Amino acid sequence: MTRFDVVVVGELNVDLIVRGDVVPRWGQAEQLLDDATLTLGSSAAIMASGCARLGLRTAFIGLVGADPFGALCTDHLVARGIDISGVAVAPGQRTGCTIVLHRDADRTMLTFPGAMAHFGTEHIAADAFTGVRHVHLASPFLQPALRPAIADVLARARAAGATTSLDPNWDPAESWDDVPDWLPHLDMFLPNDAEACAIARAHGAAVASLDDAIAWLAARVPLLAVKCGAVGAVARCGTRHLQCTPPAVVPVDAVGAGDSFDAGWLYGYLAGWPLERTLHAAVICGALSTRAAGGTAAQATRAELSTALVGTMA
Ligand SMILES: Nc1ncnc2c1ncn2[C@@H]1O[C@H](COP(=O)(O)OP(=O)(O)O)[C@@H](O)[C@H]1O
Ligand SMILES: [Mg+2]
Predict the structure, then answer these.
(1) Count of helices and strands (H, E) across the chain
(2) What is the position in ligand 1's atom list of the atom closest to the CA of 254?
(3) What residues are in contact with ligand 1 under a 6 Å CB criterion?
(4) Which of 40, 109, 32, 28 is nearest to 80 (CA)?
(5) Model confidence pLDDT, tens digit, residues 89-119
(6) CATH of the domain at 84
(7) For a surface tag, which of 121, 218, 301, 312 has the fewest beta carbons within 10 Å of its beta carbon?
(8) Into how many domains does the chain fold?
């Protein structure tokens, strides 16, 4: 009998999502915004929330500061029924924060990493992966203390009998170092299209198109899913290549869509669904998450996913 379907290891921060026809101007006293939402951010936490919404038994391992932003993060996780006994509180640290500024269809993000930069293997209990079906890791490039140990963490997860996945998200330094060391420890790799191309290029592949990046990655990991925004996503397993477009939605914002995609993907994978149905589930979960501001408010329930899958699949 397993304890958890999925343990998510990764960063925790809040998102302050603001919207307005505003370009920040230094020296000007005050400019007005049209909207502001303070909510749970971070790829790892949004992914974990999506898993819990779909009914997976989910636990989180991470680090927050002893402050209101940290409490907001853990309160959100608890409200979704996620086990947070693996979330440590760092007394001397502040919890990270991302300001997401939307202006028309464009957006920019400003991140203060805070405690996430100090999260390391000393915060992961020796028995963290015992009785766990799957371990997901997110945003290695935002976690410099954890990063040198990522291959070891993934190897520990597998040694405990779990399958593994990683969502790289963007590398602010654009070096993409270490990715080739992580791939052999992964059952599945879940980048977006820009990340896939940047990683393959950074490690010497000639990348003229996304197909070239997919070929490079697919030779190094058993299962690959690449997210392509409003266009949908592509999956590759050995020589099998599938693509899928999202259902029609009226997007409010795409914050965390890739993380909700990861949750849908993992739900299908753990259910033992065929690749095509798993990719459909992922794309649906990504698309439905865009219906509200922030990453978690509109995440798909299992019932919503079932309804959306009817009609897409025989
Ligand atoms: N504007 C959109 N309309 C419909 N679906 C979307 C939209 N943006 C994202 N999605 C869905 O969310 C998934 C992941 O989004 P994407 O933006 O590619 O990931 P990331 O957040 O990692 O960059 C897509 O594969 C798609 O299914
Ligand atoms: Mg992403």
Answers:
(1) 9, 13
(2) 8
(3) 192, 227-230, 232-233, 246, 249, 251, 254, 257-258, 261, 283, 286-287, 290
(4) 40
(5) 999 999 999 999 999 888 899 999 999 999 9
(6) 3.40.1190.20
(7) 301
(8) 1
